[in-house]
Amino acid sequence: MSTSIQTLIENNRRWAAETERLRPGYFQELAQQQTPKYLWIGCSDSRVPANQITGLEPGEVFVHRNVANVVVHSDLNALSVIQFAVEYLKVEHILVVGHYGCGGVLATLRGARVGLADNWLRHVHDVKMRHRKRLDHLPVAVQEDVLCEMNVIEQVGNVALTNVLQDAWARGQNVSVHGWCYGLKDGLVKDLGVSMSNREEVMPIFRSALKRYPRAET
């Protein structure tokens, strides 16, 4: 076993021992159940850890991550996570969290090829093309941040329009969807103002959010 991997195992042993020392019975209690109120749908980027950012303990947030925090109706992985979280764990909040400086978003804007992931990033490219009149007139640095935000807003809409959320709201279940963008440079999240708690709110909130990014003056 390589030294670097052995170091991780040793770190784990120290962490587990220290946690048990400070909180006797912690792992036994945690093993009995998970009752999170939150589902985090975020980017796979290693600099965006859900628990640390939100100050939550293990067991308090259910997490799904993929490149560029994309949610599409053909992704059975993401949809299965959402269904399990909503119907079985009864989460009350779904957080779609992007981050500024996202490599997937930057590759999309710059037309960079990254390999197999290019196919996945077509979803972000579609967001860029749909809203190009709100993007193209902006300075490049601003485009990068705005597309990160627009991508989150689009994915919030996608989550809200899944059968899982639509059915949950139809039966009166208390669950909301929110959109955030995380700053790597300051560690702070920005609430993008796209919280949706029922079917009637989805389209008005979605349209209102996009209007914050004006089209170029003609």
Which terms would index this structure?
globular, 218 residues, 5-stranded mixed sheet, 13% strand, zinc, Carbonic anhydrase, 50% helix, 5 strands, alpha/beta, EC 4.2.1.1
Task: Please explain how this structure is put together.
The protein has 218 residues and is of the alpha/beta class. The chain is 50% helix and 13% strand. It has eleven helices and five strands; from the N terminus they run ααβαβαβααααααββα. Strands 2-1-3-4-5 form a five-stranded mixed β-sheet. Helix 9 runs antiparallel to helix 11. It starts with a helix and ends in an 8-residue tail after the last helix. Keywords: Lyase, Metal-binding, Zinc. This is Carbonic anhydrase.
Largest sheet: 5 strands, mixed
Strands, count: 5
Gross morphology is globular
- Helix proportion range: 40-55%
Strand percentage lies at 5-15%
The termini sit apart by: 63 Å
| Unreliable residue runs | none
- Tally of DSSP helical segments: 11
Question: What is the average of the pLDDT values?
Answer: 95
Spell out the helices and strands N to C. HHEHEHEHHHHHHEEH
Give me the secondary-structure category.
alpha/beta
Radius of gyration: 19 Å
In spatial order, strands of the major sheet run 2-1-3-4-5
